[in-house]
Amino acid sequence: TVLRDLAQQGTLLEMRHLHEIRDAGQAQGWVVERWRVGSSMTAPSLRFLAALQLLPLEPAEKQAIREQLLRRQPEGCGLRQFCEWFDLRKGCRLVVDGPNVGYCGQNHPDGRFSYAQIEAVRRACQDQGEGEVLILLPRRYLGTVIPNHTMMGCKKLKESREAITNGVELVAGMPGTSVVTSQERELVEKWRRDGELYECEDELDDLYFLTATTTAFDVRAVTNDLLRDHLAHMEDAICPQLLRRWQHQHMARVEISSDSKAVVQNPPSFS
Q1: What is the mean pLDDT of residues 177-193?
Q2: Of 3, 99, 255, 268, which is most buried by a Cβ count within 10 Å?
Q3: In the chain, which ranges are continuous DSSP H helix?
Q4: Listed residue (200, 186, 181, 69) closest to 134, CA to CA
Q5: How much is the pTM?
Q6: Which residues pair with 200 in a beta bridge?
Q7: Distance CA 142, CA 230 (A)
Q8: Beta-carbon neighbour count of residue 212 at 10 Å?
């Protein structure tokens, strides 16, 4: 009860709060002990074996975050329509941040956007057996020539960025771009046929996967994005403690090996 009150008030839990709880408990005859949490997510004791519980976001808290995200969408964006569509897709539990996963570990001289990494993460998500997987990709990564935002393309990136912003079609040989292989095109078409791909506006993919996590059912975004900019923009309207709980509960991290094998690290199952 004490911890929930602190969270609802937006108060950061500090060591002094734990000391206050300890002192208050000892004054009432409690036995207060410190235990390291094991992989079973339990706190063992000679007196009990207590399973730690998740303190999930309330529906009103999710809705407040969603409204803040919707206010950030530019005019003409289809984010609200996506929310209405996604809210009906109750079987989906994991949403893949395509650009973030595609560039994961690719910042080296031979780096490029990797559809194979997205496929590896899709399979790793599927192997968890928790529900459907949805891949979010901006339109600029669904053509035959795509941007290359890695070390290899960074020196030539300005020209391709200006081309994308101005709506110029990317062509093979343009600085800061890569040509999509036939195998990669087949992967994209497979995702599309299987209903696992959602095409979103360029530069707005973050807003799409973030709003997906605010639906009524439990959805996690698979991304290594730390979301600093998004969190900073919302801290005036949403208390920082709530934003951190949302981030920690609904963002799954990913590790990808050099041979494109992926491991999805889900958030802890306790608060």
Answers
A1: 96
A2: 99
A3: 2-8, 15-27, 59-71, 79-87, 98-102, 115-127, 151-154, 157-165, 182-193, 205-212, 228-234, 240-250
A4: 200
A5: 0.78
A6: 138
A7: 25
A8: 24
Closest CA to 31 of 47, 15, 7, 53: 47
- Smallest Cα–Cα separation from 121: which of 107, 101, 106? 101
> What distance in Å separates the CA atoms of residue 266 and residue 254, rounded to the nearest whole number?
9
CA-closest candidate to residue 198, choices 264, 142, 254, 145: 142
Show the tokens assigned to 247: 């981030």
> Measuring CA to CA, how many Å separate 227 from each of 15, 100, 123, 185, 244?
26, 11, 25, 29, 11
Q: What is the pLDDT of residues 160-176, one digit of tens each?
A: 556 655 666 777 777 78
Beta bridge partners of 255: 263
Average pLDDT over residues 36-45: 55
Residues with Cβ within 8 Å of residue 214, at least 6 apart in sequence: 62, 63, 65, 66, 69, 246
Q: Looking at this protein, which amino acid is placed at residue 164?
A: I
- CA 164 to chain CA centroid, nearest Å: 25
- Contact (CB, 8 A) for 208 and 221: no
